[in-house]
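User: Here's a structure from my thesis project, written as structure tokens. My advisor, Dr. K., wants to see whether a designed sequence matches the one we expressed. Can you design one independently, without my sequence as a hint?
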């Protein structure tokens, strides 16, 4: 089994989340690291470069934060799972729509693309099969 690409202290440093429980953070980092290995096709025992390790850490900590920290709206507490909201007070209005409900972890697309490219994961292989018949 592979390890995590980030430690709990690195998660806290990268995200500023000091409220999440250490055990929950560690478990989430392990899960997201395993998911990253699967998505990127990293075989067991493969040594990553320093740059690849930095990108893996960023991907894993960011995805873990998305899973652990519920979205919030300035001045309003937990709004996890909100799809749309509207608020008004003293003639002022505000609205919010979240495309990512709380608890969903996903990797940043551009960072994942760069990470896969660094691994050689964007190279495409193809084959040509001759047509039969005529």
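Assistant: Designed independently from the structure alone:
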């Amino acid at each position: 089994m592979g390890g995590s690409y980030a430690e709990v202290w690195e998660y806290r440093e990268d995200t500023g989340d000091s409220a999440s429980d250490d055990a929950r953070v560690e478990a989430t980092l392990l899960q997201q690291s395993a998911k990253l290995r699967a998505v990127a096709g990293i075989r067991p025992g493969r040594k990553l470069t320093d740059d690849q390790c930095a990108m893996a850490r960023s991907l894993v900590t960011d995805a873990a934060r998305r899973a652990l920290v519920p979205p919030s709206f300035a001045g309003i507490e937990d709004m996890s799972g909100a799809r749309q909201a509207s608020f008004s007070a003293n003639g002022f209005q505000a609205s919010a729509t979240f495309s990512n409900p709380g608890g969903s972890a996903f990797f940043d697309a551009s960072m994942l693309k760069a990470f896969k490219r660094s691994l050689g994961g964007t190279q495409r292989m193809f084959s040509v099969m001759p047509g039969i018949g005529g």
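When you compare it with your expressed construct, this may help: Residues 113 and 122 are 8 Å apart (CA to CA).
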